[in-house]
Amino acid sequence: MIQVKDSTASPQTASQSITATINAAGTGTSLTTCGVLANAGATYLLQNDVSSAGTCFTIAADNIILNLNSHTITYGTASGGAQVFGIYGCFQDLQCPGGGGSNFGNFTAYNGTISMDPSVTAGDSNNLRLDGVSAAAAIHDIVFNTWGQNTIPLKVRYYNGGSGNQIYNNTFNDNTSGSINRSAFAGMAIKFDNITGSPAASIHNNTVTNAPMGGLYLQTPGSVVDSNNITFVGQYSNDFGVVAQGPNIEVKNNTVKALAGRGIFSSGGCFVSPCTSGSPNIKGINQLIHDNIVDVWEAGFNAGSGVTPIPLSFNAATITQGSNTVTGISGLGSGYGSSTTPPSYEFCIGVLTECHGIASNTATNVTITGTWAAASGAYPANIYVVSCGSFGVGTYGIQFDDTSSLNTVYNNTVTAHVAVNANGTKCAATGLRLTTFDVGNQSHDNIYKQVNDPGADGYDTTGNMLKGGALGFEANGAVGTFTSTRDTFIGDNASIWFEDLGLPQTAGFTCIQCTLGKGSNPRTGSTPYATFHFWNYRPTGPVYNVHMIDTTFTGGAAKDSTDLTAISANAAYGEYYIDWTYTLTVQNSTGSPLPGAAVTILDALGATAFTGTTDANGQVSVVLNEFHMFSTASGVTKEMHTPHVVSAVGTGCTVTAFSATIAQTSSQTVTCH
User: Tens digits of per-residue pLDDT, 7-28?
Assistant: First the structure.
């Protein structure tokens, strides 16, 4: 009972019953310093902030619960170059630093902060690392603060069937820099590596505020990645918000914002032959990627295809305000100057702080275009040589690659931006990028956009057109037909962009009831927007088997808008088909449906386009070609296949042959007399 009394001459009183719930203090074995967690089944309760010169906590028994109790672990305060960890467990894993440790499983950590000391220099000094565990972990409500190089804040390597992990409500502030192994995705915020057993993991409601290669890399079969918010500035190639590289993974309801990087990667994970359909080497199959929001830019920090990373760190470098140089660099090799490096490369101090083009360089200094605007000493030590990614491909929202098979994306909203970077450099962008895919992949009911942001015109600083569009192909070696249904592709530079597709004629693309549109800031000039843009300049880069069925063209897009050119040493074969669904209803003389009538349709070249019989409703529905656009050695041919000639024969009656021009989705009813 709480009573309140006023102080007036005539006091008044009022009373009211109030029910209050007070959480009990956390219980468990008290911890006040870092050490070994060795009591099986114990709950440990951290009583204060703790720090350690090296690793803080080591897990050495099963079923341990570590309640950080809103406190902070700081590790590696005097590591001396050694590999160290915030929380570490290892058992029977060849990659365990220092060898195998105690058996442990079913570990839980929650409710606090794990911070790497900024002085840590050894790579792979993870905030929380679990190797070779025999049972799943639960990691939740933890803030991860990371510096150093080649370091993943949360890294899990279970070889003993220890999946089924629960990772949720965590925040990752990953400020890793320096050398990173891009092919190993060593700059992700979360990595589940070589976990190929069930049950699945659940990774949900986490926030990534930054990471040098993106948010999450996952191989665990059947896992669900749900409702995570991932924002990052990627500094290396292979930088994705989510990498799904295992079977039956579901990626849904996530928000990915790559200020410099890429969105979601559906990877088959096949890097060792054979990678043919059905091979056990193909890991990424039966994935579902849906209801995600993806916004991506490439700000020029993507290192490209080599394993040598960018940025490069030159701690002795000197910057002087008003100068046009960076001096005091040690051992900068040839290849960064204008004579050997594309002009779109830049030299930057800090992440997106100030960037300039490279005029020339020696082993000890760089001459920039322009002058440094800020005062001497105003920058951090890291100096970045930046570009727009491998061969200038830039950013993309969703990608299928590495023999991705039987995977489906739907209900996603994807926008890939071309922006003007710090010194005017502009990087390419593609909404949906299809590279080496395998059989059975499909996309439906998505919106893919490629947008030129204000100031971007679709060209780089040298005046060359930028690759990419709302949909882009670089798919030599792909297998099967990728099917898109009811997808929308709106592009400022192209609706569909082709570098290659189908060599050796084993793959294709079918788009059913898709919408192709021209964006609101279309590329003009020497290489203007085209609905179907062909950049298949290599003799080994033909484009085959592209069928557009019942397509809607909007905003200036058109079915014959293409820059396809004649076959030459610099242009391979290219083609696409514009097809439409034609539905014919045959009725008898009384107006009733006539089933079993034999229907024949010839195209404008006299070839048989269809033969078949009407169904119980007296109907046939068939996809017919309006025209076939393709290149030859002498030019580009638009081969018309309509008007078509249609005839039908029923029992005791005939439909006289008639002409039908098929230039849109259409239906027709005829009477058999």
Answer: 555 555 555 444 443 334 568 8
State the pairing for strand pair 598-602/608-613: antiparallel
Q: Domain coordinates of the chain in residue numbers? A: 316-380, 412-573, 584-671
- How many other C-beta atoms can be found within 10 angstroms of the C-beta atom of residue 518? 24
Q: Tell me: the pLDDT tens digits for 55-100? A: 999 999 999 999 999 999 999 999 999 999 999 998 866 667 766 6
Q: Are 252 and 292 in contact (CB under 8 A)?
A: yes
599 Cβ contact list (under 8 Å, min separation 6) = 584, 586, 610, 611, 612, 613, 614, 620, 646, 647, 648
End-to-end CA distance of the chain: 95
What is the rounded distance in angstroms from the CA atom of residue 338 to the CA atom of residue 462? 12
Architecture in CATH of 584-671: Sandwich (2.60)
Environment class of 23 (CB within 10 Å of its CB; exposed 0-12, middle 13-18, buried 19+) = exposed
Q: For residue 182, give the 3-state DSSP assignment.
A: helix
> For the chain, percent helix, then strand, then coil, each to nearest 5?
0, 45, 55
Torsion sign (Cα): 458, 461, 464, 467:
negative
Instruction: Output the six-digit token pair for 9.
Output: 């001459």
Would you say 16 and 2 are in contact if contact means Cβ atoms under 8 Å apart? yes
